[in-house]
Structure formats: C-alpha cells, structure tokens
Amino acid sequence: MKREEKIFKAETKELLNLMIHSIYTNKEIFLRELISNANDAIDKLKFKSLTDTDILKGDDKFKINISVDKDNRTLTITDNGIGMTYEEVDDNIGTIAKSGSKLFKEQLEEAKKGDIDIIGQFGVGFYSGFIVADKITLETKSPYSENGVKWISSGDGNYEIEEISKQDRGTKITLHLKDGDEYNEFLEDWKIKELVKKYSNYIRYEIYFGDEVINSTKPIWKKDKKELKDEDYNEFYKATFHDWNDPLLHINLKVQGNIEYNALLFIPKKLPFDYYTKNFKRGLQLYTKNVFIMEKCEDLIPEYFNFISGLVDCDSLSLNISREILQQNAELQVISKNLEKKIISELEKILKNDREKYIEFWKEFGRSIKAGVQDMFGMNKEKLQDLLIFVSSYDDKYTTLKEYVDRMGDNKEILYVPAESIDVVKSLPKMEKLKEQGREVLILTDKIDEFTL
Ligand code: ADP
Ligand code: MG
Description:
This protein is α+β, with helices and mostly antiparallel strands and 453 residues long. It has helices at 10-23, 29-51, 86-92, 102-112, 118-122, 181-184, 189-199, 230-241, 323-327, 330-353, 355-378, 381-384, 401-406, 422-426, 429-436, 449-452; strands spanning 3-7, 63-69, 74-79, 133-141, 148-153, 158-164, 170-177, 206-209, 212-213, 249-255, 261-267, 284-288, 291-297, 309-313, 389-392, 398-400, 415-418, 441-444.
C-alpha cells in the first residue's frame, strides 16, 4: 500500500509555528474546530446520500464521539461522516487550505510583526489541534475508496501519509496532548463536557462522551428565542461560519403563514479575509426537514448583502432540489425578498439607535451597500438610500442624507467634494466662504462615493 513522507509547504510551517508559539492564547478552541469539521463531514455525507443511497449501506446513526485516555494522554474525536480519500487528505490536511494565495503570505508577514491575528483572519481549523498536541494522528475512510488513510504529524514540518485497511467510514482524529499541567485538563470529563456545552452545543448531530450525549442536538434556530442568550448565538456563529470573532449582529426570524421558515442571519464584525478574492462565495446555508441541502445558496441573499452569513430552514422545500430548480423556486424568491427587507430594517434601526455601532458596520461594509446602490442601473437605490452615510463638513461626523436635507433650509442642492481626506477639503479656500453662508458639504473620501450620489 502507498506510503509517503512529506514536508509541509513553507507557509504552513510558518503558520504552525506562529500558532503554537505565540499569538494564540485561547487553547481550548481546538475542540470546537475539530467538532465543527466532524459536523461538516456528516453534513456532506448526508447530502451526498440524497442522490447516492449506496454510500450509507444502512448502518447509520450519524454521530460524533469523543474519548480520552489518561494513561496515554490522548484525546480522540471520531465521526462517521464522509471521510477522505488519500488525495483528499493530502490536499486538505497536508497543506493549509488557502495557503497558496499571495494574500495569505502577505498576511502572514503582517502577523509576524504582531499586526494581525492570523487565526482570526483565516480560521486554520484542523491545525489548531497543534495548540495542545505534540502529535496528531488522523485515520479516515471515504466511501469512494477501498482503503483507509492514515496521516501523522508532530506539526514540526513533516507528515507521514499511508494507506491502511480501515472498514468503518469516517474520520478519527487522535491528539497526543503535550506535557505540562495546562494540558491535563483536556483529559478530564468535566472539561470536555464544559467545552462542548460552551462551543459546540448546537451541533445538530449527537456528540457522545462515553454513553452520554453531551450536546443539545436541537437546532438553535428551532429553540424558543427566550431560552437563548447572546453567547448562544455567538458561539453557534463562530462554530458554524468559520469566524473567530463574535458577530456584530444576529437576526433570528421565525416566519409563519403561507411559507413557513426559520432564518438566522449574522452580520460579521469584519470582512471575510477572502472577500476580495475570487474564492469568496456569498450565500446562506439551506436546510429542509433537518437535512442540510446547500452551503452557499446565493438566491437567498442579494449581492450587496454578500457579507452576511446565516441559514434558512424551510420544511416545505423538496428534498431533492437541484441547483437549477432552486433558482426558479418561488418559495425561495419570497424568502429572499423577506430577508432583504428585514435586514434593511434592522440596519436602519441600528443607524437610528446606535450610531457608533452603525459606523463600525459602515466602515467595514459600507462599500457593498454603495455598490448595491449603483448596481443594475440603480434599481435598488430607493431601498438602500436611507442606509447611506457620508462625512459632512457640518460637524466632521457621519450624516445621513435625510439629516443633511433637514438642515438645508431654503437651499436646494446637496453639495459635495470628492477628496482624499477631510483635511484636504478643510484647507480649500472655498470652504471658508461656504461655512459663512451656513452651507454644508459632504466629503467624499471613497472613490465610489461620487458615482453613488
Ligand atoms: P475548513 O473546515 O475551514 O475547511 P479545516 O482546516 O478545519 O478548514 O479543514 C480542512 C479540510 O479538511 C476541510 O475542508 C475538510 O475537507 C477536511 N477535513 C477536516 N476534518 C475532516 C473530517 N473530520 N472529515 C472529513 N474531512 C475533514
Ligand atoms: Mg474546519
């Protein structure tokens, strides 16, 4: 059977070093990452099985299993999900997913200077195991290959990969914990339970620890809102949407009537790291009858809200929906319109009630909204115009167009100056005069501002 020893790509190695030795202090998040991968793997299998019933072979109750072995200092996470073929292990685990990109290398340089939190930016999932382990063994079996695969690494530059005989489908990850008191707690029952409750409670598959199921399996969006705290949403968001920051905002919708659905939407704090690359895909997760249908359903969210993540669960959709049929699906179109309206009204609410928070949002995502105003010959401008804010010479702060108009008195025009910065505009001789006349000027520092107006 095939067996190879390989070395990590240079940037993978650098990242591992950085992660293990310096920036990441919150050790415990590794468990969330590994459980999240197990969850994704079961989702993938379940989805594939809709069209390829053979891969299940009737054995299945999907589950994730955690176990500890104190004598050998190991912590093991097992799933019966999709598993990986030899090539997939090599591609997915042997290199950091997006590591080849130039962007990644640049960010890595910045991170070394201490400027950015690279893990927060990239969410290096699987590798976070090396925060607590000095050796990781991964054994996996895909329904699409005859043999299993074993991958072993100490996170120090090399890994071994070999074919093994393995019967049961899925993935088993064994962490050999580092020596040192601070790692001992990850072998304790109470700690494992605490971490699962804290970070992975709303994983939809049962997480077993011994004979006991230690998570709440009921989807968070099916829970009574009264039972949920901000932390519940935040942890669910981070575990599900691969962000290491809390979201700026969540929207929990339970809609009844003609079309019944639940939606849970999140506005992140920061632009996704790959936002400006062609790897970036918008869309919401789509579920029906508790089956995960699609990771990024574009039709649920307009282009200018492409930074929003979340999910829709609608039981009346048909299970074997294909991509093409989805696009013409009338129910999805209605849902999408509703979500758009809801997001706009939530944003307007923040703009009205919490200006500081809105500005934080605007600095990150204002460009997308402005692009939305311009797009399709301004088709959506009316919907979006009340979300626009610009810096004004009135008080050098952000203003809405409506606020500007309210201050205009008898004047009929909105004045604006495109410029590099507020200071440049303030030093213009003309400004003095306008000020005397009590006129207010919008200062357009973003290239797309002028065209937006
Ligand atoms: P991400 O989850 O953001 O893609 P990770 O580093 O967590 O990044 O995982 C990298 C890839 O490795 C995953 O996209 C997946 O293809 C694969 N993988 C990781 N864990 C598993 C698992 N338990 N079962 C199957 N595939 C897995
Ligand atoms: Mg992951």
